[in-house]
Each structure stands twice: as structure tokens, then as C-alpha cells.
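Let us practice reading a record.
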Amino acid sequence: MKIEQFFENLEIGEKDFVNAEKYIKAKGLFCHLQIKNKLLAWTEDDKIKYSQIATYYRYDKRIRMVLYKYIAYLEEYYRAAILDAYFDNTNQEFWINEIMNKLNKNIPLNLILENLGFNDLIKQIKKMPDEIKIECSLFERKRLRENLYALKELRNAVMHNKFLLMYRCFSVCYLSNGQKGSSLRDNIMNLISFLPENVGKKCKLDIDNCAKERNTEQDTEWDLLEQAIVSLE
């Protein structure tokens, strides 16, 4: 691949040319070419603006940062629910092996939970008594196994800095309206369904706000194509 390929059929000003070279070096030519080809498929012309490519990249990063915040919130929420209920009452049969083995070594539950990976945390939360499941919006929930698996896969994609708007390995999840899907939108809605109601509303608002312009003078023009917007309506 040569950088000249990226600048073919590209509308770009002198100021943005400097920005483009900088970000191509930092983020990679392959990624920029992928974005360019995707956006070209949405246009009737054989040209694309650099501002649209830069905006698409920034929009993806904004979404990733929002999801990181709310996935981290959910992890803390689950850990807190378990810890507050059983910190001084750990003699239980529902612990997964990863927790039980450490409890048998007299490691405090708070330290165990702090170092417990998300996959094991999900395994544990599924085995908790009904009162904890109710608190965590898991009680008598349809398609719980599939939706928790999809949540785990979304979390992995976010934590591994996948380019979410072009990622094609999300898992199928089942939404409250009876529909199922594996798009980024579907997986965000699945995450929201696990959050406390007020927190879920804030997550939705934060995702919607990712599409809004909030440029500084130094930024490339915010130029988000309508087709790129992840609508949660």
C-alpha cells in the first residue's frame, strides 16, 4: 500500500493535508483506506471529502469512549452487588471455582472481585441468588445466556480498541421488542438493558451526543454522513 492511494479521489484542503499525514502515520494507512472505501460506497460521486473520513474516525472513537465508561460502570455495579451482600458471609455454595479456590486460601472477597475478569464475573453473577439477580436486572430474563455472551463480546471489542463502526464480529442479542440482531446498535441497546434505568437513559443520551459537532478551531471540519449515525430510536 502506498499513501498516494489514499489521496486519490479525495477532496482535501492544505490545512487538512497536514492533519491527514499525521493521523495516517499514527493510525495506519490500511484503516484510513477502509474508511474511505466504505464512505465512497455511500456517495453518488467518485470522490469523498477528507473531513468525512476524519469525522467518521472521531465518531467511532467517541462511541468507544462512551461504551467503555458504561461497561466499566456495569462491572463495578456487579462487583458491588456481590461484595455488599456477601463480604462477611462467604460460606456459600454458589461461588464459581475461580472464587472458591481463593476463598479457601483466605483471600478477602473484595480482593478476589477486584481481580476477577469480566468473563468470570458474568459466570458468577449468573449463579447468584434471586435477590442479587433482581438487583442486577437478571431475574427471569429471557435469552439471558445469549445476551450476556453478546455483552461480553461487546466489552472485548471496546477494550481491544476495535473500530466499532466497521466491526463485523458482534454476537446476536435479543432485544425487548422481540427483535434480534448483531449490529453495533443492537449491542448498544443490549448493554443499556442491563444498566439501571436512569443510567441506561444517560448512556443513550451520551451515544446520541457523539454525533454532534463540538469542534475547536484546530479540528478538521465535523462532517458526519447521515448513513454513519448509530440511531438508538
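A brief commentary: The two ends are 40 Å apart (CA to CA).
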